[in-house]
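Tokens for chain A. Residues wanted.
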């Protein structure tokens, strides 16, 4: 048995005397290191126990990973940015290095990218590290490899696996923010409004991939797990806010929500007996509320709720059974068939005796839209208003009230009013029957979400539908990628199991705001950059002429000279390599283009502004050129929302060497190790949210309308484009609007819209401006849009290049959404198939009457009647 040295009793006695002499307040001020030393002196066995415990611990611990906005399930969408949070701890010492994923292949490109960020870990303290990632190809093995390493190290310090799950492109997220438990919203996942009418309900895995909406319920009600990066909110279509104090959200989350809202997010505020709207008055949402509470609340019983019950009859579809275990027998797994229509007879709302439904009194602000409780009811169901492209809806009732939860018509109310989801029977595939039979096709992402980013979404849906139509006409199966790209699951054959048929089908669906290089605007910008660079790919005639000349010189001419003239046939073999070298040098010289500088960058920026909102979305498309091989770092200091990746120039060659770039999201966003081959173009694209010095707005004073430019940008060749609906478009040329200047509408305009832009040294803005004026989605939420399209002769600053460039030029296209129409009514034909049927009946009756009248002699159809007929038909079919 070992004994302690004679010094230990003295040390313990000294430690006890010091402990008794030090006041309690001083002990409280000791650092953790001093407390640890004092504990070792007073309890020597603690040191031995601690050393034994430390030996069993790994140097670094990976505690957990999360993908916002999910607390547990790590869902990620292909072709969309996500924020991944990682909890990491260093057990032995402080650590400085980087955290990065294994390289991710970029489809159609000889390039891959590593997503990384700085990692600073404090000893024995858990650190939460967030980073932005985008997966164009989903890993077969359903996990991502993550490594912790130091700069210059040969080997990583630690390796972990981060699990991920597939979120289909069309599937949207509905985030619930509640001050209490959000479990009352869990049943919404099983409502017919959240799943397709035609779906495989016997297969729970397939059903989860087919569903339209997925409810996101926080584990801790007062601590919602949201992303601070606004460009990662694209998968979210709706936020249900049920009484959570706005101050519960950090400022970064508040700003991200406002950005999301202005680009098409839909925010629904819950009223009724529980929450109070007074908490929003002084919050970041205060200036955007469509109404204010009046205090004139009401308690409604069955008789007063009859108009509400009649307005929202229950759907013939049944909710998904509660059982989620695939091994258990399911109750009524098949959806109920359509029998004569999409709705059953209306069912009354029957509150228990003494427990009426509480209705909040609201006073609409000017310009807000109201939704009545029902036909003939003096009460309101909701008040709503547009906020940029999105909307805020304030409900007067709480849909989680037990009386409403037990009411079969609640699903119809949620679908029409809360989600504003179109009828499946009102889709183009089933409009001919006006909902009198089951829909033949499911809704896609653009039907389920209003969120759009012009640089990503312009023409994207039309391109996808055109690809599908061409493949169907040729009887070719739909490819796994939406645009005929390789499967989103493509990985090396030895990694993981193959994707299921349900996953492959889900990946063929259409999403919104996807980061694809093959959509209309990226392709247009790529072609414009190539043209501006002056570098062109040699034509087929040039290649054919070179090949013929080489063959002619190699065989007959070489043999004629060496064999007949010189009488040295063996010299012909010596001439072959010299001839090949000479032709290579000659072709390089002929095809070479002297740019006049060693390195340069051409850039096309698209600045998208939402009316009076002081922030804008910036998309960059750029092409780098250098005379020699180089690796660039493109950084965005003071721009924490910036993201950037290599841009597919569609010039890759089979067998080309793969290069690896690094996207660093923290501390300074930067695209590093970006390779540029000699005498060729290397392209990249980026996005960010940008603050403006002032908004670009439309001020209306009775009959007077004025476009005011309070930003720092000069707007050249400004054109006002009005989309009144029905596919119509009116353009008004305004000319140049200087920074801080204004233009009154209605005055004599400078002239017609110019087809070309003269005198600009750089990429031609004319094709992009024409596309921005022309491209428009014919949907109810877009009706009444008024936009301004202009350009500026300089690219937006804020990015740096290392090494420095000899020349950097470009232009900025400016797209301002000055105004949108009111939110579409939930009783419109796109959301209520009965309204479509009524419109069809009115149209048929009018056409029949017109046919009878036209058969009488001398009858001429009035122009107003023809316009009315076209308007009814356009409203019925177009929406």
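Reply:
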């Amino acid at each position: 048995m070992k004994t302690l040295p004679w010094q230990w009793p003295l040390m313990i006695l000294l430690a006890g005397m010091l402990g008794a002499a030090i006041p309690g307040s001083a002990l409280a001020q000791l650092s953790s290191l001093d407390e640890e030393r004092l504990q070792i002196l007073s309890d020597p066995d603690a040191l031995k126990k601690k050393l034994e415990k430390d030996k069993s611990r790994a140097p670094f611990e990976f505690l957990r990973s999360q993908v916002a906005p999910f607390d547990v399930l790590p869902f990620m969408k292909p072709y969309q940015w996500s924020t991944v949070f990682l909890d990491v701890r260093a057990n032995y010492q402080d650590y400085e290095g980087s955290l990065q994923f294994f390289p991710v292949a970029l489809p159609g490109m000889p390039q891959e990218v590593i997503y990384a960020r700085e990692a600073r870990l404090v000893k024995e303290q858990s650190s939460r590290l967030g980073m932005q990632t985008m997966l164009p190809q989903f890993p077969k093995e359903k996990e991502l490899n993550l490594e912790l390493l130091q700069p210059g190290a040969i080997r990583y310090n630690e390796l972990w696996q981060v699990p991920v799950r597939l979120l289909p492109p069309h599937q949207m997220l509905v985030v619930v923010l509640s001050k209490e438990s959000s479990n009352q919203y869990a049943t919404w996942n099983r409502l017919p409004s959240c799943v397709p009418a035609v779906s495989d309900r016997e297969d729970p895995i397939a059903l989860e991939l087919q569903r339209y909406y997925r409810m996101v319920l926080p584990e801790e009600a007062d601590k919602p797990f949201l992303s601070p990066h606004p460009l990662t909110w694209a998968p979210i279509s709706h936020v249900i806010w049920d009484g959570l104090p706005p101050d519960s959200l950090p400022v970064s989350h508040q700003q991200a929500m406002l950005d999301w809202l202005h680009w098409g997010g839909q925010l629904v505020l819950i009223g009724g007996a529980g929450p109070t709207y007074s908490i929003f008055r002084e919050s970041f949402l205060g200036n955007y509320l469509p109404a204010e509470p009046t205090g004139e609340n009401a308690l409604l019983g069955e008789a007063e709720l009859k108009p509400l019950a009649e307005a929202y009859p229950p759907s013939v579809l049944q909710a998904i059974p509660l059982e989620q275990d695939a091994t258990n027998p399911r109750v009524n797994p098949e959806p109920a068939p359509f029998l004569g229509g999409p709705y059953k007879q209306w069912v009354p709302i029957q509150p228990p005796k003494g427990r009426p439904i509480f209705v909040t009194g609201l006073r609409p602000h000017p310009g807000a839209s109201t939704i009545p409780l029902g036909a003939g009811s003096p009460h309101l169901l909701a008040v709503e208003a547009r906020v940029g492209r999105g909307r805020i809806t304030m409900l007067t009732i709480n849909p989680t009230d037990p009386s409403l939860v037990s009411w079969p018509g609640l699903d119809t109310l949620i679908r029409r009013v809360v989600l504003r989801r179109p009828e499946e029977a009102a889709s183009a595939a089933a409009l001919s029957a006006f909902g009198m039979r089951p829909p033949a096709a499911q809704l896609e992402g653009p039907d389920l979400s209003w969120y759009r980013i012009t640089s990503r979404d312009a023409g994207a849906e039309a391109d996808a539908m055109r690809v599908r139509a061409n493949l169907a006409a040729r009887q070719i199966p739909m490819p796994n990628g939406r645009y005929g790209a390789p499967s989103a699951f493509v990985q090396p054959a030895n990694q993981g199991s193959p994707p299921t048929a349900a996953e492959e089908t889900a990946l063929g669906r259409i999403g919104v705001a996807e980061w694809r290089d093959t959509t209309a605007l990226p392709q247009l910008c790529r072609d414009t950059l190539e043209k501006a660079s002056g570098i062109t790919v040699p034509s087929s005639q040039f290649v054919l002429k070179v090949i013929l000349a080489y063959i002619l010189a190699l065989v007959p001419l070489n043999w004629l000279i060496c064999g007949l003239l010189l009488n040295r046939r063996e010299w012909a073999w010596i001439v072959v390599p010299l001839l090949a070298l000479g032709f290579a040098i000659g072709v390089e010289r002929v095809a070479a283009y002297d740019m006049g500088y060693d390195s340069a960058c051409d850039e096309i920026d698209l600045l998208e502004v939402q009316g009076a909102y002081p922030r804008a979305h910036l998309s960059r498309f750029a092409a780098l050129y250098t005379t020699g091989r180089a690796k660039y770092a493109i950084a965005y200091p003071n721009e924490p929302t910036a993201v950037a990746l290599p841009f597919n120039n569609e010039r890759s060659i089979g067998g080309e060497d793969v290069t690896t770039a690094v996207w660093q999201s923290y501390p300074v966003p930067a695209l590093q190790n970006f390779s540029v081959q000699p005498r060729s173009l290397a392209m990249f694209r980026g996005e960010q949210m940008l603050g403006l010095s002032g908004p670009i707005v439309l001020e209306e004073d009775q009959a007077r309308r004025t476009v005011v430019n309070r930003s720092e940008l000069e707007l050249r060749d400004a054109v006002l484009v009005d989309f009144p609906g029905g596919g119509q478009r009116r353009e008004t040329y305004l000319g140049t609007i200087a920074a801080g200047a204004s233009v009154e509408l209605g005055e004599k305009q400078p002239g017609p819209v110019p087809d070309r832009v003269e005198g600009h040294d750089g990429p031609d803005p004319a094709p992009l401006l024409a596309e921005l004026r022309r491209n428009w989605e014919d949907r109810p939420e877009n009706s009444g849009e008024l936009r301004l399209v202009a350009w500026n002769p300089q690219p937006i600053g804020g990015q740096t290049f290392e090494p420095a460039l000899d020349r950097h030029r470009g232009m900025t296209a400016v797209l301002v959404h000055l105004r949108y129409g009111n939110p579409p009514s939930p009783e419109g034909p796109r959301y209520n198939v009965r309204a479509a049927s009524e419109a069809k009946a009115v149209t048929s009756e009018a056409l029949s009457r017109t046919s009878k009248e036209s058969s009488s002699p001398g009858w001429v159809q009035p122009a107003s009647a023809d316009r009315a007929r076209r308007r009814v038909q356009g409203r019925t079919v177009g929406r």
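The chain has 19 helices and 36 strands. The longest strand covers residues 807-819.
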